[in-house]
Amino acid sequence: MNIGAASRASGVSQRMIRHYEQIGLIPGAPRRDSGYRDYSEADVHRLRFIANARDLGFAISEIGTLLALWSDQDRASSEVRSLALAHAEELGRKARALEAMRQTLLTLAQQCHGDDRPDCPILQRLED
To answer: What is the DSSP letter of 23?
Structure first.
């Protein structure tokens, strides 16, 4: 199938498919006589795997590791579990940081009168 069909089948944009080829997450697709890339069902499956991993917030480097583990039938599932737990911990850390930022903004917004006066604690906080 051509790149458009692979994109529709996998839910990954054509631009990202080309990018994933360029960085080696998927092998370069063979070319037809017409010059168009020719993707297989296995390529589409791999693209879906990558898209699902991206949806879970895995970084490209982590996805490369996951792909290697996925294709290694001799690997221990503990390796995959360890990677998932480390990623979950990182997501938790980021969620706590985002919540702290959110609370700061809400507090600053409560302190702002939101009227015609120029003084604003939000801008003052950003200035500090």
So the answer is: H
Per-domain residue ranges of the chain: 1-75, 77-128
Cβ–Cβ < 8 Å for 51, 11: yes
Instruction: For residue 116, give both structure tokens.
Output: 């015609």
As a whole number, mean pLDDT of residues 81-86 equals 96
Specify the CATH number for 1-75; select among 3.30.1330.60, 1.10.1660.10, 2.60.40.10, 1.10.760.10.
1.10.1660.10
Q: Which two tokens stand for residue 43?
A: 């390529």
According to the model, what pLDDT value does residue 128 have? 81
Of 38, 54, 29, 30, whose CA–CA distance to 2 is shortest? Answer: 38
Query: Using CA of residue 82, residue 83, residue 84, residue 90, what is the dihedral sign?
Result: positive
The residue ranking higher by pLDDT, 126 or 16, is 16
Q: Is 0.90 topped by the overall pTM?
A: no
Tokens of 46: 């791999």
